[in-house]
Structure formats: C-alpha cells, structure tokens
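Design review, sub-item: ligand-bound model
Attendees: FS, YL, KQ
YL presented the inputs for the 4'-deoxy-4'-aminopyridoxal-5'-phosphate complex:
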Amino acid sequence: MIYENVLELLGGTPVLRVRNVLPDARSRIYVKMEGFNPAGSVKDRAAVHMVEEAERRGELRPGATIIESTSGNFGKALALIGAVKGYRVILVVDPKTTSSVLSYASSLGAEIEVVTEPNSAGSYQEARFDRVRELLAKIPGSYRPDQCNNPDNPRSHALYTAQEIIDDFPQLDALVLAVGTGGHISGTGSALRQHFPRLHVRAVDSFGSAALGFPFAPYRVRGIGNSWVPETLNIEFIDSLHLIEDGEALSMCRVMAAEEGLLLGESGGAVVFAALAYATAHPTQSVLVIAPDRGENYLGESYDDQWLRAEGVEAEDLWRTREEALRHARAPKHPPTSITHAPACASAFDPV
Ligand code: PMP
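KQ shared the predicted structure:
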C-alpha cells in the first residue's frame, strides 16, 4: 500500500481479543488499539478532522499558528499535522506530560510551553487555558482547535471510529470507554447506539475527575478525566459510570503486559479494568474497549518502578497476575453506578 503522506495512515486501527484475562470461558473482551494511529492515539482522528474542517471554513489559513492546551496526545497529533501541512504549532502542557510525548512533539517542530503551577484547586488544566488565551491574543491569525468545545471532536468519532466498529462487529453488547474531552465516547456512543439499539455504554473516568460533575481532586492517570464538564461530552448515550483509582489502572497495565503481551497506556489500563469488572457481572456479553494510546508513551514513567516510587507508589503494591486482576474486578474500589437522568452532573449517577 502506497500513501501520499503520513496522515493518510489514520484510522483502520486493529482490534485485539483478550485471551487470558477473562472472568469466564464465555467472556469476550475486545480492545481497539488506537495507538496504531500515525501520532499514536485516539486524538489523531479528532485533531485531523478539526484541522481539516477549520481549513474548509477558512478559520485556519496556510502558514498560521495552531495553539492548544493538551495533556499530551492531542499535542502529538497537532505536532504531526503541523509538520505535514506547514503550520507553526505551540502546545501548552504541564508537568504531568511525559517526556516521550514532549520529545515526540518537539522533534516534529512543535514549540512547547510548560505551565509549572496549578491553579488554587490543584488543576493544571485551567492554568494551561489561561496561557493559551494569552498566546492567542498575542499571535495574529492564530487558531485554537479547542478540543473541549469543538463539535468536530466527537463528530470525527461518530463518522469514522464508529463506522470501523460497525464494520468489525456484527453484534456488540457493551462499549466501555474513557472520558477526557468526551470526544470518543460521545461520538462513538451516539453512532453505535443507532446501529446497536440495545448497546450498553459505560463511561470510565478517574476518581477525582470533574468531567461528569463530581468535585475535582488531583489524580495520577494521564489523558483521562477533566477539571470540569466539557462541552464535547454528551451523556445522553451513557448508561453507567465506573470511576477508577490510579492503582487499579496502573496495575491493569502491568497485568496486561504480563498476561497478554499488551503494553497499554494508563487510560487503556483503566478501561480494560472497567471492562473486566463489567464482564464479571455480564459474563456472556461481548464488550469492546478503546485503548486510547500505547504503553510506549509511559515507559519512563508508570512502567518504571523507580519513577513510581519517587511519585509515592510502591511497584510491589501493583497487581500483576490474572488472578489478582479478577479478584479486584469483582470488588472494584468504586462500584459502577447507573445513570438515571440528564443533565451531565454527579446527581445523575446512582449506585446500581
Ligand atoms: N486517554 C488518553 C491517553 C488520552 O490522551 C485521551 C485524550 N485526552 C483520553 C483517554 C480521552 O479521550 P477523549 O478526549 O476523546 O475523551
């Protein structure tokens, strides 16, 4: 297959069936590996669609500057797009962003601004936004994709990610997806609910994230969660919620590496753990998770025992075996809750 540029490698990501870490011989858990996109994550789809729609509408002109606040993966995607299409790219990140993400983006020519102080609530995200606003005011003709407010973010997943899932699955019972901006859960959730009317959609968020209206408290897992309820999150198609502790996500990464040879990103660990908990309660159902990126983004951080220790996490406290994962999946730290009504706020979630 011959491609004209690297952005054409977008999409068509593989789906892997989990073989060993299953609660029951009848269980079917599938992992759609978004890390196989050209800049390595689920955000590539949203970034390409947002940029191309902005070009089409004339909001983004040749040679302009793209400025965005990002925890990492969206920035990698923008850095790649900037290099291919000739835009200057400025990424506003914070100290949680991993060194591999930063080296990737700067190797492609993106400029990096690190916000070093969180705001008074402990949120780096809001501090990043303040810096983005300053840069936009300073640089004429600059464009901000605004991933938390731009409807082209969820739309990219409704158009493309969902269609790939429909092509791969004649039947599907449950979708277990991470929430950050809400882009991929809202887009795929809405499109797949039309195609599979009885599909159960379970949102996976970090305990401490305010994306679904709960009070914000700092947490460690990167990419997942938010400091507020993003515009791009539509909870209409979400049936239940599983809040994950950092230790559950990081442990699941270790288990999947050891038992399946699969090096997941941190949020991938979170969704696979949530899928295991779902499958424990529904052993005959088919469950699909989207692994937003790959473990390669975290080799120097959450896969590194010394780094973890410096962060206050003892690697020995993480579980590594199928048996431990199953035991924890039967009794997760925060039992999943069902959603009873709109709008997007914590009161919509009731214990099941
Ligand atoms: N996991 C990772 C690793 C991510 O980078 C992101 C995007 N921030 C998400 C999950 C959440 O994806 P979305 O923004 O589509 O909700």
